[in-house]
Amino acid sequence: MAQADILLNQVYDNLNLGDNTSEEKYNQINDIISGLAEINNEHTIHPKTTGTISERLCELALQARVPTFYKRITGEWNWMADFSVLGHPFNLLVSVKSFKAKERLLVSGSGNILSPTVGWGLFDDAGEWTEDRTRLYLFRSFIAIYLPTSLYDEIPAESKLIHNINGKMLLRRIDNFMNDLSAAIIANENVINILAF
User: Fold this and answer.
1) Under a CB-based contact definition with an 8 Å cutoff, are residues 154 and 124 in contact?
2) pLDDT at 13
3) pTM, whole model, 2 decimals?
């Protein structure tokens, strides 16, 4: 079992979520993040493990809302995103990062509004979310970036007011991802139509 899964299972057990569904776990995402922060404060979690944990947590929402329509991106294209939600007429990319956005989040994504990108991360540095820097994500075709609630509350108001191409908020609380995903899709038997995210 990977170290990421050992740590996640420890947090799930502490929160009595061990046997719960992906949806039930994601509904407790803020508590899960707090539990992981406590572990990290005691013994720093290796960055590679943190990356895997971040992917697993984001995937909970995908499993709950689009279980048969998402795929993990691997190989030579994994610089672009971690997941692709297969849609009609275009796909949605999901780029997952750990504590720091740095340039890694900014250069991920398709850069094409016809295949928009969602950012998702356990970010912990409010200094990375100035108004000017946040606006740059629009040029890389990001339509939403999900941040931990504790960080979202620290971000300057000007950054929170930035809208995506659909006129909706670019920066959002991480606990809203699963519901936003539901609101943005129409699922038919064989295809998902991705609406204005």
Assistant:
1) no
2) 94
3) 0.92
